[in-house]
Specification:
The structure holds two protein chains of two kinds. By secondary structure, chain A is of the alpha+beta class. Chain A has one domain (3-75). Chain A has helices at residues 3-10, 15-33, and strands at residues 37-44, 50-52, 57-67, 72-75, 77-78. Chain A has a two-stranded antiparallel sheet. In chain B, the strands form four sheets. Chain B has a seven-stranded antiparallel β-sheet with strand order 8-14-11-12-13-10-9. In chain B, strands 1-2-5 form a three-stranded antiparallel β-sheet. Chain B has a two-stranded antiparallel sheet with strand order 3-4. Chain B is extended, with a radius of gyration of 27 Å. By secondary structure, chain B is an alpha+beta fold. Chain B has helices at 5-8, 106-109, 177-194, 198-218, and strands at 9-14, 17-27, 29-32, 35-38, 44-49, 55-65, 70-71, 81-84, 87-90, 97-101, 116-120, 127-134, 138-141, 155-160, 172-173. The chains are: A alpha+beta, B alpha+beta. Chains A and B meet through helix 1, helix 2, strand 1, strand 2 and strand 3 of A and strand 1, strand 2, strand 5, strand 6 and strand 15 of B.
Chain lengths: 92, 234
């Protein structure tokens, strides 16, 4: 459906504002129904705990780590509480 | 070497960061020439440690984003698709790269110049590409995109929506028909909010979520069966 058709159906003629509202609508839809998914991959680095979430993230569907024995990504579980660390540098 | 990552890796979300941990149950280990070795005189037991190896593209995050909200063509007409083992990839060197089909089925399948396509099933050319020309037996694109590959794999090529990065009145919203109708309700709700009509706004927001919900339930076909208890008294 074109932006023009949506404007006619809504009875509103401010194109810039309608485009902004449509972006909000897509954002809400993506936040709740996971209509279209995107995948981002990062290198895991020895001794590095912190990785930045994608800047354009709306909602997470899954987080996986590659199993190098069979080269498959496997979903990992979420820690619900803060782990107790005796050292906070490189505890290997 | 990572193994059983679904059991031995965990994550925690902290603000905009994701923290990765490995669960270890045993001696502290180190990697020597690719082999894990137990270190003497170290703690032995269950604990969480920071990732203890490099894994290229090891962390995969699947998520939703505000990607390509507007496209140049309606989703309903983005339907060109071809599959087969007659498709080969030609690296044109300094010239244009091409995809060839000995069955000459590209135009019949609906491909046109400037279409955006996605390739799956090839040995080394899976990905998204932008066409510069489409003929019955050849799809052409810019140089240095494809790796030469003879026809043998079962390859599928299909058209995907092309983003319109400068949306205007002629742009299409990148949603199916049902969600486009939901977007109309959302715009109506915001217009009602703009004019101070809160009751109308509430009504249209309800309609918006109803259509989003309908769109989700349209994807599912659910049947529920109830077994009769052998001890039921009739």
């Amino acid at each position: 459906m074109t932006v023009q058709e949506i404007m006619e159906r809504a009875g509103f003629t401010e194109t810039t504002l309608v485009i902004a509202y449509l972006k909000d609508a897509v954002h809400l839809i993506q936040s709740n129904s996971k209509e279209r998914l995107k995948v981002e991959k990062y290198n895991i680095i020895d001794g590095e705990r912190d990785y930045l979430l994608p800047q354009d993230l709306i909602a997470i569907k899954s987080i996986s780590v590659k199993d190098t024995t069979d080269s498959k990504y496997k979903k990992i579980r979420r820690l619900t509480s803060e782990p107790i660390l005796t050292e906070d540098t490189d505890p290997e | 070497m990572s193994y059983d990552t679904n059991k031995t890796w965990l994550y925690r979300l902290e603000g905009r960061d994701i923290h990765l941990y490995q669960y270890v149950d045993g001696a502290a280990i180190d990697t020597l020439a690719g082999y894990k070795i137990a270190l003497p005189n170290e703690y032995y037991g269950s604990r969480l440690i920071y990732p203890n190896e490099d894994i290229t593209n090891g962390l995969r995050i699947e998520y939703t984003a505000l990607n390509e909200p507007f496209v140049a063509e309606a989703l309903e007409t983005t339907t060109a698709k071809i599959s087969g083992t007659t498709i080969a990839f030609v690296d044109g060197g300094g010239g244009s790269d091409t995809i060839t089909d000995s069955g000459s089925g590209f135009v019949t399948a609906g491909f046109e110049a400037t279409d955006k396509i996605r390739i799956i099933g090839s040995a080394s050319n899976d990905g998204d590409y932008q066409l510069t020309n489409a003929a019955a037996g050849t799809l052409t694109m810019a140089t240095a995109l494809l790796t030469a590959e003879t026809a043998s794999e079962s390859v599928t090529i299909y058209q995907i929506p092309k983003e319109d990065s400068s949306p205007s009145e002629t742009s299409h919203v990148n949603l199916n028909r049902m969600l486009s109708l939901a977007a109309v309700d959302y715009v109506k709700a915001m217009v009602s909010d703009f004019t101070g009509d809160i009751q109308k706004k509430e009504y249209y927001i309800k309609e918006f979520w109803k259509k989003v919900g309908d769109n989700e339930s349209n994807k599912r076909k659910i049947s529920v069966t109830f077994p009769i208890s052998p001890f039921a008294v009739k």
